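#structure-requests
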Amino acid sequence: MNPNSIQKTPKNVQKKAKNAKIKKNMKSFLKPFSFILLFFLQTFSFAQDKAKSSSRPIVDMLCASAVSTDKIRLTWKLPQNFNAASILVFKDTVPVNSKSAEKLSPIAELSQKTQQYIDTVTDFNEYYYAVLAKLSDGTLYNVVLPSINATVKAVAVKRPEKARKKSEEQIAAETPKLYTDGTIRELPLPYIDLIGDFEKKPSKLSAEVVNAGKSLAGKTSIQKEKLEPYYFDEDITSPSGGDDYYLFEILKNSFVKKNYEASIIELKKFLSVNRSEETTNRAAFYLAQSQYFTGNYRSALTMFLFTQDTWPILCKKWINSTLDFYTIPKS
């Protein structure tokens, strides 16, 4: 055995141990700095991605809303450094995506700084929109992001309100009535305020009025025949909803079945809540008819007078019939 080799072995082992210790110390020393370095690298990468995404020609916050019976307004926001030659607006009856955008023709091409567009439509269909960028080389930047640069909710223009055809009563009420010489003008019926309790008992007639009424009743002979129930055109078919539908259900369940007692109860409940003027007038007229058919002529007369301004000719016929059946109470 070579004695030199025996002397070198301990030195080699000692050197290796020393190197391992140095490496271990270096790792411990550099470990905190590696985390800091990694943090800066990730931050730099995120900043690059953000700068890259902000330079993408994609509009943001696209919103579509109907503003009239034939116009839909589109609004959007432009990102910083919006690098596009122009802006293209697409429209379809289904949500627009990247695949369908390739087949669609834009409805408008706008300047790169535009942030709104008014679309004029000629129908009442529901539409979806997408706003995409056209690059300087003429190609479409076909990236469609729902709720970002494409709408996800359909929008349609507002339907115009249908002009209601005037009834004969309304035409007659608006037409000035001419009186020839010697003709006595018809006296207007008194105004009756119905705001209050429907169950309020009427005031008693004076003895003079009662006697005069009995005198007139004894001298006339009128063939009494009750009128047939009257229905307005609006209440013949079921409405889509709202107060009209509520009134339709009351009529269907009680008035049409000639259950006038139940009809009176339900119509009074209906009229106790604020409704539209048109629906209120119709409900009051049905209430008057229900009271007429149950023999409560005095209350019926009050309700017919309430609706006379709306349907003067129609109410006049029912008022006359109510007066025919009305019996003056005994004193």
